[in-house]
Amino acid sequence: MKFLPFILPLLTAAALATVHLLPEAGDMAPSAVEIDIPGKFGGWNTRAIPASEDEIATLAADTRFSKAICLSPRDGEFDLASGLAIPDRIDISIVLSGHDLNNSIHRPERCMPAQGHVIGSSAHLVLDLPNGRKLNARRLLSVQSLPTNAARTEYASFNCVTYYFFVGNHSITHDHIERTLIDVKDRLLRGMDQRWAYVSASMWYGKVPWIEEEITLEEAEEKLRSFLREFAVEQIDWEMIPP
User: Fold this and answer.
1) Among the four residues 42, 50, 57, 137, which has the most C-beta atoms within 10 Å?
2) Does 5 fall in a domain?
3) Where does the pLDDT of residue 101 fall: very low under 50, low under 70, confident under 90, or very high at 90 and above?
4) Model confidence, pTM
């Protein structure tokens, strides 16, 4: 038994490596998530934004992106100069894999540092959805530093909470290794490949420039979870996902 801690990682690595040796399957089964983000989610208005050049350059050419800034007015808070409501902001991103899964989708922990994030902690959580289903997600806490001038010599830093998960044709998981093992099993037993979509949503907390009062982590998470519950029910075809 003393060799068990060494054997388990080797077995996992061997299982992951077999995905390259399996026979090619036919057409890829579609993801159960709708990638196009609607212009409105309940009390949230969305504005589409393009993927960054770094994202496009580092992933396979047939990878699809759908990204948006989502704004919702804060109760009773208005900008005195413009008279407009002061909004909360959530950033949502959906990345749909192409035929080369290894080069079109991966754990966000790999790409978030390139977007200025220093990740401090990671945890698993379960969201209870209004339709009676459950959604497993990964929660990341990070500090994001963004340049404030064209020369990129000055930066502003923000506390950030991010939730993410992967949606396949018949599976949802928050774990990258589990996602890979599902692909191996599907290729062996079903002779199929499936498109995976990586869904992430994030919100700043603490001192946010346009909001006078600091946002607590608890407040940010409450709004993020409410947003994702609504998103999951509306955007995921749950008939494709076994209970």
Assistant:
1) 137
2) no
3) low
4) 0.84
